[in-house]
Design a protein that fits this description.
- By secondary structure, the chain is an alpha+beta fold.
- The protein is built from three helices and ten strands.
- The chain has one domain (27-184): Calycin beta-barrel core domain (Lipocalin, Beta Barrel), CATH 2.40.128.
- It has helices at residues 2-21, 29-32, 179-184; strands at 39-47, 56-66, 73-81, 84-96, 101-108, 113-121, 124-133, 136-148, 151-159, 166-176.
- The protein has a ten-stranded antiparallel β-barrel.
- The longest helix is centred in the first third of the chain and has 20 residues, at 2-21.
Length: 185
């Protein structure tokens, strides 16, 4: 028994030493592009009337920061308007090095989970996802065009076939200095 415990102790000691010498992974250059979204943002949009509700003005306040390790940006949002009850959401933006796409995973207070993948070309982010509307599977496309270091315009479109798109929402998001500055607007 003593020989077994000595052998086990030696293996744990070697494994611990090997782990201590491992270099922690570092985010690649693709991940650094997400730094644009870090900070406090406020959004105003027009939601078109349609199957999701009556439409109208939409407002959100977002706070985004890097998660420990620097691989993911964590977004905390509060939203209201356009016939939706006031709510909140938490999302994670990152880079999938296997599929070579950006990822966005959001969970909100209405019980929805959104999983999107994106490409970034020039000054435009294009996020695509699938979601259910009753028995139908719909495609969503969220396009963000960077206007400046502190603003981007966006539009959200939906499609039943991935070819023909219908505009559901369009607006602008602006970076503000502090959350209190966003409330003053």
């Amino acid at each position: 028994m003593k020989r077994t415990s000595t052998l086990l102790f030696a293996m744990l000691l070697l494994a611990g030493a090997a782990f201590a010498q491992m270099e922690m992974p570092k985010p690649g250059p693709e991940v650094k592009k997400l730094d644009y979204f870090v900070g406090h943002w406020t959004a105003e949009a027009d939601v078109k009337p349609g199957p999701m509700g009556p439409g109208g003005k939409y407002h959100s306040e977002d706070h985004s920061e890097w998660m420990d390790g620097g691989f993911f940006v964590v977004l905390h949002s509060k939203f209201k308007g356009a016939g939706f009850p006031p709510g909140s959401g938490t999302a994670y933006m990152g880079w999938d090095s296997n599929d070579k796409v950006y990822t966005y995973d959001e969970f909100n207070s209405m019980g929805e989970a959104t999983h999107s993948k994106a490409t970034f070309e020039g000054d435009t982010w294009t996020w695509i996802n699938d979601w259910k509307m009753g028995e139908k599977t719909m495609k969503g496309r969220f396009t963000m065009k960077i206007l400046s270091p502190t603003a981007y315009s966006y539009k959200y479109e939906a499609s039943t076939d991935g070819t023909n798109w219908t505009l559901w929402m369009e607006g602008k998001e602006t970076k503000v200095k502090t959350p209190s500055a966003a409330k003053a607007k």
